[in-house]
Structure formats: C-alpha cells, structure tokens
Amino acid sequence: MSSVTRIRSATGGARGGRIALLGTGVVGSAVVARYRQLVERGVPLPPFAWLSNSRAQVANEGSLEDAIARAHAAPRQHGGVPPWAEGEALARGDIVIDATASDTVAGWHAEWLLRGIHVVTANKLGNGGDLARAQAIVDAQREGARYGDSATVGAGLPALRLIRELVAGGDRIHAVEGVLSGSLAWLLSRFDDTRPFSDLVREARDAGYAEPDPRQDLSGEDVRRKLLILARAAGLPLEARDIRVSSLVPDALRDAAPDAVDAQLNTLDKPLRERFVTAYRSDARLCFVGRFDAERGASVGLRALPLSHPLASGHGTENRAAIFSDRYPDRPLVIQGPGAGAGVTAAALLDDVLRIARQAG
Ligand SMILES: NC(=O)c1ccc[n+]([C@@H]2O[C@H](COP(=O)([O-])OP(=O)(O)OC[C@H]3O[C@@H](n4cnc5c(N)ncnc54)[C@H](OP(=O)(O)O)[C@@H]3O)[C@@H](O)[C@H]2O)c1
To answer: Where is the Aspartate/homoserine dehydrogenase NAD-binding domain (predicted)?
Structure first.
C-alpha cells in the first residue's frame, strides 16, 4: 500500500520505535494535541509515524496537524481491508496506541504483542474483554513487548498499577470497590431532586460527559469492564457473567430505537427519584458502585452509602477506588481524583508510551 511506503520514508525505519495511533475521535485527537505540546517542551517521545480511524490511515509527513485534519476529513468507506489490518506496516519496537472502542482492534492486541509491537490502550475490550483474550494478552507479554493499560480504568489514576504492585509485593487483595464511571458520578453528584434525572442526562450528553447514547453509561456495562480489569489485576480470573449488574435503564428505554431514546429518557425519573428520597431520608448518598470481593463475588449497581463512607465524597466526574487487602484489612487504601475526560485519558496514554520508550531504551 502506498500509505505504508510513506510511513517508512517518513520515519526512516523502525529503530527506536514509532507511534501508530488508532482512533482520531475525542481521545485520539487529545493524544495528538498533547503529543505536540510535550514535544514542544522537549519531552523525548518516539516519532509519530501514522494515525488511523475507521476510514483512513494517514502518515505523518512532518505536520501532525495536517495528518489529523486529513484523517478527520476522510470520507466514509464501505468494504475493503480496515486500516488496522495493515499489520506489516508495524515493526518490532513500534508502539500502537488504541484510542478506539473497537472489539476488532482489541482482538489484535495479543497478536501485536507477539510480534514485538508494544500496545498502549484506552480501549477496555482488550484486558476487559473475554477472559481468554485477556489471558492471551498477559501471555504474549512474555515475548518482551509491553502492554500499557493505565488509561482503561480511572483515566490514569494509579489504582490499577497500585493493585498490581501490591500483588507483586505479596499482598492479597480481599476486595475492591469503586466509583468507576465519571459520567454516572457527575449525574449522581448533581441529582438533588430539584430537576428530573432525565434533564441531567441530557445536559451530560450535550456537554460530552456522557456517551451520545446515554444507555451505554446507565446500563453499567462500562463499569463492568473496568471492574473485570481491576479484578483480573488482583488475581481473580472473572468473566463478564460473574459480575451481577443492576442497570439503571428501564425496559422501555432499553428497547427504544436510537432515535426514540430521548423521548424515553423520562422513564428514568420516577425510580431514580424514589431511590434518592429514600437515601436522603437516611442521610445517605446515591453512588454507582462496582465491587468485587474474593469471597462474596462481584456486583455493579446503585447503592445508598452513608456520608462517612470512603466512596461517598468526591465531586463531579471524580473516580474513587477503595482497596482492602492483608495490608489494609479494615481501613481501605483509597485513591480518588479526576478519572474521566479526554485530557487526563490522553495524558495516561502518553505516560504509558514514555514508560515503555524509557524501558526499551
Ligand atoms: N472519552 C473519554 O473521556 C474516555 C475516557 C477514558 C477512556 N475512553 C475510551 O477511549 C476510547 C475512545 O473513546 P472516544 O471518546 O475517543 O471515542 P470516539 O470519539 O467515538 O472515537 C473513536 C475512534 O475510533 C475509530 N475507530 C473505530 N473503529 C476503528 C478501526 N477498526 N480502526 C481504526 N479506528 C477505528 C473511530 O473512527 P471514525 O472517526 O472513522 O469513526 C474514531 O476515530 C474508547 O474505548 C473509550 O471507552 C474514553
């Protein structure tokens, strides 16, 4: 392919590794913007060889700004070989950044690692997908390539890294519970019964805090994936079906066609109002919590937490995770901070890139 030829000539070969970005949406665009800022500040990042979305792959021939503008402007295509399949463009030591939500792209993570290509991902469908896929990703790293997944949970908050370090240090994780969805944290922190919940959902969607189809957040599926990633890091080999998920989405909204979703949002209002009033009367706060427990299993859903609970504080889109282990049996180790948004996610991705580049160098 001509684009592959241009990639090689643009970077002068694979020595030292090059970056290939998949996904030029909200997160991918933020990665490009941050990459440019960091390079201007003299941070030694690997060269940016190419970027790709579902429509085009574009070589960086000197101006990243031009490259991303060309990728954004590419027309919709049907059929043909998707850009990610051009695996032969990549060489040992290169770094793929996956900023898509594509199951197909996630299916390539282990294959790239086996070829000696490092993978850095915001896409949770790699180690938050099927257990067999997650295990293949772990096994493939034995060949030497590295997997950077800091951005998949808490947008780079160090919860995932900390769990792995505790386990590597001989600690045993008993339980982890967390507020792991920035959009649900934002919705529930704003919900005080002065406005219908559906109004807040529309506001969150319009401001970009929630997905264009808010059912993706409200169903709890995103939290389920994050909990799977944390549980597996703690040594619990869970499958998605092992986590009980209590969706906030009523049946009528769940079954609505995409263009009827907005009209059905008000089906959220009555049940959420009832939960809020009950919680308020007992001095509790509603939080959407994911929890796994080595003894008692794993669940995702809405809980009314006393105000003194470690997960009940926090503002806006903040994420929180409480870790109980042999070392922290009664009072958990708590990590809290901004855990959503394109800026912090892009920073987490490029932190992983820099860590890998340093280790490879
Ligand atoms: N947004 C956040 O704050 C946030 C925070 C943490 C993690 N994440 C995760 O980051 C990922 C990206 O999120 P986003 O908000 O940036 O999504 P987005 O705006 O929808 O962008 C997704 C990008 O992936 C591209 N894509 C889809 N299939 C592809 C394929 N087969 N090959 C190459 N590119 C492909 C899309 O191409 P087209 O442009 O051609 O459609 C688009 O550019 C998701 O996994 C999300 O869960 C997001």
So the answer is: 23-144
